[in-house]
Design brief:
It is built from 13 helices and 12 strands. The chain has 352 residues and is an alpha/beta fold. It has a domain of 240 residues: 3-Layer(aba) Sandwich (Rossmann fold). Strands 3-2-1-4-5-6-10 form a 7-stranded parallel beta sheet, sandwiched between helices. α6 links the parallel β5 and β6. α1 packs across α8, α2 packs parallel to α4 and α7 runs parallel beside α9. The model has no long low-confidence stretch (mean pLDDT 94).
Amino acid sequence: MILVTGGAGFIGGNFVLDWLAGSDEPVINLDALTYAGNLHTLDALKNDARHVFVHGDIGDTQLVSQLLKQYQPRAVVNFAAESHVDRSIHGPADFIQTNILGTFNLLESVRAYWNDLPEPEKSDFRFLHVSTDEVYGSLEKDDPPFAETHRYEPNSPYSASKAASDHLVRAWHHTYGLPVLTTNCSNNYGPYHFPEKLIPLVILNALAGKPLPIYGDGQQIRDWLYVRDHCSAIRRVLEAGRLGETYNVGGWNEKANLDVVKTICTLLDEMQPRADGQSYAEQITFVTDRAGHDRRYAIDARKLERELGWKPAETFESGIRKTVQWYLDNTEWTRNVTTGAYREWTTRQYGA
């Protein structure tokens, strides 16, 4: 059995679904169900005895300790985090609370549990911490991609809080011997993505006839990773990663934001054309750039391929087509997550 934290969020939810699609090993799923946590993502597991959902916070040491004692997991996979840069700029306190203090409390609960495990369970136990490439800062156009040895230079409250959590995980390994693994991923996209992020926001706004907001000149470059490729990488690291090591996970798909949006518009023109025959690209609108917007991220994932034999299965072209099709086929899911609170957020962030 494994314990997954944040397993009702975008990446965590995909990981739980992916795990149980390929394994009968049960999952204890702990999620605080903040705005981005969505139980509808896990509807397929409603009657599945292999999935036990617990509503709670990683910072609740009493609850986490109780779960560890009750279920005796062989591994903890930590996805739980506040993850939206824009929200961190407007309200950094939640990011400090969850990403730093929450990770600290989780580590302490897990350390106490791990210390009391008998052998061989103690040697076999793993704590895998899922993090982001944003901890490395920003790259210039011709800089080499981020390797695991790149120094940390976070530029937003979100990335600073994730950098702090990474350092805590590292310290708990080197100081206490906790058997940890860390993954730093590039921008994920795919099914069940909360529609405040670029790709789902553009898909849903396009279909609703709304503006497609592009920060600044739209030339910010990201490395795009299909979420199910990310899930397979995490499984591989959990299975065979070297203790205390960090593994960068990327899709080898550097794209400017504007090009991503234009690609989505082209796919929608093909898959669900506008009634007036015009391209969805007509809805592109440039808005004021956000504060401290990093210009380029790029991941060097060669260590993961070299040591563990992992590489992404999807190209950006194949993954983005699957993603657009998923949103066209799952309108009920999107209706359920686009609450009044979400609409208020997007209006405040991008303007009416």
